[in-house]
Every structure is written in structure tokens, then in C-alpha cells.
């Protein structure tokens, strides 16, 4: 409308270009254009909305009459089997992972679609109304369709249940004349994760979001197509869509169905059901939708914070063999101070856990062992050859055999410590690969 008014002003002023007229004539011309423009009355829109609302109320009273529909009875699926509900989950935001509590807070919305044979009508008989879509709270209690009781398994189930009343105000219910029902609701869930910090700072963490209902799996079944790999598995890093979540990157998302017990413990029933146990579990089991997310820690800052100083420590310890005894001990002393500082820094930055020795601690112990080996070697050289200058800068005469013996000793020392350094590098890579393939003891 603003564009239309601007054009009218331009036309009005343009028609008087080159002539000097009074402001009143220009305004009269502008008012003439405005009379040709129709501004719809807001009352017309309200009147139409009110008529549609009243028609929908009459339609719902006709469909959901006391003798026609019972909202407490679960609709039957095709062939009289359990009702098939198709869930769709949209994740909008994930808060930074809480490493101390091993928890993840995720925000999003979930949509459930199913068919209810008791909710059908002919649009031509009801003012061409084919779809009714409202907030679920705007439906009268006597005119509500059956909806499943859905909840999210979280680290704190009580918090989720307290938020149901708030989320109910934002839950949308859509009904079509063909009996198709769509329920969409937002959620904010804090779910428990099983963190493993043994590969820190190159660790991957896995968190699961579980969505289930209070209904038995023989009444309600989540129709999640596990054959559609594009739907259930998405490697975000490959798609170059990996979002950053605090110190982590979300690299993988997968989903799967599982049969669980009816209590709040999400214990997957792996064993087969036999005899009377099958009858006992029929009414106590339900289907849950699990969404598993894999997070990979961003290790750039930890590389410069942990790895580079440890590399400097082993290089300084290794380089002590290239100098005379006094300078060699100075190098080892500096390496020891740096290693001590790194020990305190690793202990401060490392998350609290009881998963065993982390990879960074394993690297620290190897660097310490390498430095101690160099220290023992330097003591041996000092004991056998005295506190003398290096073989290339001898200040006093010395027998040729003495010089050759010292050169041979330093060569052996440098070779042994260098071999230890190689073991440190390959040992670290082996431990990381060993844990990557989940071959833990």
C-alpha cells in the first residue's frame, strides 16, 4: 500500500510539472486518486473470521457429538492393527554441552501425523471447510480429537512434565476432511548423555533424545521408515553443514526405533519374549524414537595449549645430547619446568570423569618418561666422561680413544632417546586408533 501511495504522489506532482499551481490544487488531485483506491475495512476481515469460526464450531459439534466420537478411545490403524503415527523432529537450537553434568539441552519442535477414521466430513456440506487448524487449547473439550500422550525422556523428567502446560499453549492441531490429523508442538529438553573423555581433547561425545508415549506398542506405533537412509542418518560434516555447539561440532545425526519398558528407564529389551513373559510384556512395552547426535570436540586450541608444549618438552630433552653436560642439564631443567606447568594446566582443563586415563594424560606420561630417560643418560655420560666440553670443542688435550668413546656413547644415547621419541608418537597414534574402533579393555 505504501508503494501505491508513493506512485500516486509522483503522478500528482508529475502532472503539475512545469506549471505553478497552488498547494490546494495538488491536494485535490491527490484526493481524487485516493478515491479510486479501495481500502478494505478491518471489520470485513473480522466478520469473515467470525463466520468461519462459527461454521467450524458447528462442524465440530456435528463430528464430535457425544454419540458419534469418543476422544478417549485410540483409533485403529489399517486392518484393525495398532495406530501408525509418523513423527518428524525439527531441531532448532542446541545449547553448549554441559560436560560436568554430562547433559545436553535441545530446543525444537516435533510433528506427529496419523489418520483417524472417525474424523471425516464433506466440505460442500460445511461451507467448503476442508481444514481446521488451531492451537489445541482453542478446541472445546467436547470437540477435541484423540491425541497421543507424548513425553520426552530427559535427565530431569519432572522438569519436562512441568513444562507441558506452557508448551500446550503453542501446540497446533490440524484436522482435514479426509481424517488426517497433524499435531505439532515445541519442546525444550535436557537429556542425559554418556560422555567418554578418554580421547580428550580428540574426543567424540554421543547424546540421545528419546521421544515416546504412554501407550502400548500394540495400540500406538511410530512409523519411522528405517529403510530411508537419507531420513535416519545424516553426516553433517560431509554435507558441509556441521554447526558449532560450544567447544564441539555436530558431525552426525541418526535416528532409530526401539522397544522400551513402560517405566522412565529407557532399557531396550534385547532378549526374545517367550511363554507367559510375552503376555506380561505386551501391555508394558512401547515404541520410542531415538535421535542420536555425535559431537566432535574442536581441538585447535587444545593443540596449541597441550600438544605443542609437550612436543617442546621432548625436543628439548632430546636436544640435551647435542650439548656438553652443563648445557644438557640446563635444557633438561627447562623441560622439567615446562612439563610441570603442563601437568597443572591439563589437570585444570580436563573435565571431571571416571572413564580411565585420557589420551592427553597418556601423552604427558610418555613425555615424562622420555625426559627421565634423557636425565639418566646425561648422568651416565657425566659419570663416565666427566664435566667436559663437547667433543667438537675440547679445550684440553685428550686421547683419541677417549674422544671416540665419548662420541660413541653420545651416539648410542641419542639413538636410544630418539627411539623412545618415536615410540611416544606411534604409541599415541595407536592408542587413539585403538579407542576409535572401540577395542577398549
UniProtKB/TrEMBL annotation:
Annotated transmembrane regions: 302-322, 329-347, 359-386, 407-431
Domain Neurotransmitter-gated ion-channel ligand-binding per the UniProt entry, residue ranges: 59-214
SUPFAM superfamilies associated with the record: Nicotinic receptor ligand binding domain-like
Membrane topology: Multi-pass membrane protein
Locations listed in the record: Membrane
Keywords associated with the record: Membrane, Signal, Transmembrane, Transmembrane helix
Record-level GO cellular component terms: membrane
GO molecular function, one term: extracellular ligand-gated monoatomic ion channel activity
Primary location: membrane
Signal peptide location: 1-22
Classification via Pfam families: Neur_chan_LBD
PROSITE patterns from the UniProt entry: NEUROTR_ION_CHANNEL
Protein known as: Neurotransmitter-gated ion-channel ligand-binding domain-containing protein
Organism, scientific name: Pristionchus fissidentatus
